[in-house]
Amino acid sequence: MTSSEADRSSRISGFHKLRVAERIDRVAAFAGLDDAQRAQLAVASNIDAELADHMIENMITTIAIPVGIATNLKVDGRDVLVPMATEESSVIAAVGNSARQCYESGGFVTSMSGTEMIAQIQLLDVPDPRRARLVILERRDEIAAICNACDPVLVRHGGGFRDLEVRIVETPTGTMVVTHLIVDTRDAMGANAVNTMAERLAPDIARWTGGRTLLRILSNLADRRIVRARATWTCAAIGGESVRDAMIAAYQFADNDPYRAATHNKGIMNGVSAVVLATGNDTRAVEAGAHAFAAATGRYRSLSSWEVTAEGDLAGSIELPMAVGLVGGAVKIHPTARALLAILRVEHAHELARIIAAVGLAQNFGAMRALATEGIQKGHMSLHAQNIAFAAGATGDEVGEVARRIIERQAIGEEAAARALAELRGGG
Ligand SMILES: CC(C)(COP(=O)([O-])OP(=O)([O-])OC[C@H]1O[C@@H](n2cnc3c(N)ncnc32)[C@H](O)[C@@H]1OP(=O)([O-])[O-])[C@@H](O)C(=O)NCCC(=O)NCCSC(=O)C[C@@](C)(O)CC(=O)[O-]
Ligand SMILES: NC(=O)C1=CN([C@@H]2O[C@H](COP(=O)(O)OP(=O)(O)OC[C@H]3O[C@@H](n4cnc5c(N)ncnc54)[C@H](OP(=O)(O)O)[C@@H]3O)[C@@H](O)[C@H]2O)C=CC1
């Protein structure tokens, strides 16, 4: 491998052993960041108060969440280093470790159903809802024109109105007629874009049908924006048939028991939400979509599937809605989100979505493998031990040493850490 090929490989062993500045250098070389982007990564408090005050209401301060880099991912044949914003230890280590174990077997293959969002318009007090439904459907061309006129920029980017659905929803307070505007929002998450269209169209719908429109808002069940990822881990890479079969049993548990599925999917979202947050996207929108999709069959299930291939290897796949954008919302204005997006080298929202799905699958593999073998505490708590050492007052080199002592004593708690720190400072 030449040095520039090495710079372009995500397969980096021991990245976690580098100093922070060395990690930034390595990532900057990998992604070809410019000086401003590199400088943006190097400051810990990276949003100025004036911008923050414009982003939200009643701003008083900011809370910094660490951003780490998941190594070893290959997505659709391309090596990527993935920024993840999370407060939870072991999350990023698990992704790097999982991706390492499928790197040689090809990494992750992904696809996406499209970038269409749904806006809903609720119509009440219609005496003849079935007739009203057809009246709305007959106006399809007019509706398309009204929607597209709301957002010429989106249309210029190849997006805009795509389709119309009208559903009858029976409720305890009466029958509602619910119009779905299906809009391709391209590189935008699209909430503001489709909400504008729904609000603009609602008075026409009321007039055409003689009913009363009420809510006009997007649906976070973005099931026309489904992202998919799959990967195969060879039996040899994961430690043999017994590990593979234990992981399948772990998956079956999740897919058939909602109590377990909630935790299993929370683990997937550890990875998904961390990339969504790092790139300035809306974590709540993606989380709502994921959990609604997991329950779409009427039973809350696993977002991932695991099976044994003809060769006896472990194949994993994941499908979930992924409403993320590269423009709009906070994405474009948060300087760190911009610099972190530059690391991913993506040009379109669907490329970002596909990387996020790969991270979700890797995260799920890591948690399931740990749970089905040594248990979660060994890996997770040994990394968490550093937080505990820090909380007990350790500083500098003391943090690593106190963490090492409490792991060795299998007493990973604050009291044990305080004792270890006192011993260390007393020369013990
Ligand atoms: C923690 C590991 C990875 C250790 O696993 P290990 O096998 O002891 O690791 P290792 O020391 O042999 O290193 C192997 C690779 O792991 C990565 N790695 C290793 N250490 C680090 C580190 N310090 N910083 C960054 N990366 C690290 C790194 O890629 C490294 O390769 P190298 O760079 O050395 O060539 C493993 O035990 C693991 O994946 N555990 C699972 C952790 C996890 O899932 N955490 C999520 C939080 S728990 C939760 O919220 C969700 C859950 C669990 O409830 C979901 C569910 O129930 O399904
Ligand atoms: N339930 C939910 O999830 C809700 C979420 N939100 C929030 O909405 C925000 C996201 O809305 P969104 O509509 O994406 O944001 P914006 O309205 O800020 O951005 C979308 C706009 O960007 C312009 N644009 C420029 N280039 C492109 C391109 N390549 N592809 C697509 N559009 C392009 C378009 O037109 P133009 O320049 O003319 O604007 C488009 O309308 C997030 O902050 C989210 O938190 C809001 C309400 C509810």
The percent range for strand residues is: 15-25%
Average pLDDT works out at 94
Whole-number count of domains:
3
Any ligands, ions or cofactors bound here, and which?
3-hydroxy-3-methylglutaryl-coenzyme A, NADPH dihydro-nicotinamide-adenine-dinucleotide phosphate
What is the H/E string?
A: HHHHEEHEEHHHEEHEEHHHHEEHHHHH
CATH superfamily of the largest domain: 3-hydroxy-3-methylglutaryl-coenzyme A Reductase, Chain A, domain 2
CATH architecture annotation name of the largest domain: Alpha-Beta Complex
Classify the fold: give the CATH topology of the largest domain.
3-hydroxy-3-methylglutaryl-coenzyme A Reductase, Chain A, domain 2
Overall 3D geometry? globular
Over the alpha carbons, how many angstroms does the gyration radius reach?
Answer: 24 Å
Note the gap between the termini: 47 Å
Helix/sheet category: alpha+beta
The CATH class assignment of the largest domain is Alpha Beta
Poorly predicted runs: none
Number of DSSP-assigned strands: 10
Give the biggest sheet: 4 strands, antiparallel
Family: Belongs to the HMG-CoA reductase family.
InterPro entries: HMG_CoA_Rdtase, HMG_CoA_Rdtase_bac-typ, HMG_CoA_Rdtase_cat_sf, HMG_CoA_Rdtase_CS, HMG_CoA_Rdtase_NAD(P)-bd_sf, HMG_CoA_Rdtase_sub-bd_dom_sf
Pfam families: HMG-CoA_red
EC number: 1.1.1.88
